[in-house]
Amino acid sequence: MTATALLFRDDAYLRRCDAVVVGTTPDGGVILDRTICYAQGGGQPGDSAVIRRADGTEVPVSNTVYAADRTQIAHVVGPEEATRFAPGDPVSLTLDWEPRLKRMRVHTALHLLSVVLPYPVTGGAIGEGDGRLDFDIADSGLDKTDLTDRLNALIARDAAVTESWITDAELDANPGLVKTMSVKPPRGSGKVRLVAIEGIDLQPCGGTHVRRTSEIGTVAVTNIEKKGKQNRRVRISLVD
């Protein structure tokens, strides 16, 4: 079985690639040998895109998800449209860039939020221009204005955002790297991807990020919700 090569892991800014059809799924997904599309998971939505066939026909991809064994990625085009693809077909894939870029900005901002609030993270979600993290924290007088100022101060440092890899064993030996209690770092290949924000943060993550914190732009903490005795939900939004 051919695993899908995850090009977005090496370069989240790729907007187009050539690929070959590996197969299809019963629910209307087209599996490619390589992709620039992020598959839904870890609180981040799957990407939308357009697949272009050799004859020039363009087919919209409404979502990108993992196939059953999680080594392949399916690009959802619908059951009827999927029957028109066959293994070996050459195609090109063009990413729906604007939603992806907003998610990248939000995702990196949420990593910074986990620095501003250094508490265990119990959940999170990334949207197109907004997002949230849930923290295992009692009511401690959190203030939206204060959190916004501290978050934007980190963004303004224009820190580089880079990736590296460690083995599963190295991660097990450094459990403090994992901040999320509900979402586990992606494993299965024997290595785990780390995302570093220079001088600020380091944690396992399989998602897509901007290259520098300045690319996030200005953000605002828009709401702080009490979700339980020991749980606070903090929402952020891109201002620009």
SSE topology:
Elements: E1 5-6, H1 7-10, E2 16-24, E3 29-32, E4 34-35, E5 49-53, E6 58-61, E7 63-66, E8 73-76, H2 79-82, E9 90-95, H3 97-116, E10 121-126, E11 130-136, H4 144-155, E12 161-167, H5 168-172, E13 191-197, E14 201-204, E15 219-228, E16 231-238
Parallel strand pairs: 1-4
Antiparallel strand pairs: 2-3, 2-9, 3-8, 5-6, 5-9, 7-8, 10-11, 11-16, 12-13, 13-14, 15-16
Helix pairs in contact: 3-4
Using brief descriptors, characterize the structure shown.
elongated, Threonyl-tRNA Synthetase, Chain A, domain 2, alpha+beta, Elongation Factor Tu (Ef-tu), domain 3, 5 helices, seven-stranded antiparallel beta sheet, 240 residues, 2 domains
What report would you give on this structure?
With 240 residues, the protein is an alpha+beta fold. It has 2 domains: 5-95, Beta Barrel (Elongation Factor Tu (Ef-tu), domain 3), CATH 2.40.30.130; 99-238, Threonyl-trna Synthetase, Chain A, domain 2 (Threonyl-tRNA Synthetase, Chain A, domain 2), CATH 3.30.980.10. The protein has 5 helices and 16 strands. It has helices spanning 7-10, 79-82, 97-116, 144-155, 168-172; strands at 5-6, 16-24, 29-32, 34-35, 49-53, 58-61, 63-66, 73-76, 90-95, 121-126, 130-136, 161-167, 191-197, 201-204, 219-228, 231-238. The strands form 4 sheets. A 7-stranded antiparallel β-sheet has the order 6-5-9-2-3-8-7. Strands 10-11-16-15 form a 4-stranded antiparallel β-sheet, covered by helices on one side. The longest helix is centred in the middle third of the chain and has 20 residues, at 97-116. The chain is elongated. The N and C termini lie far apart (44 Å). The mean pLDDT is 91.
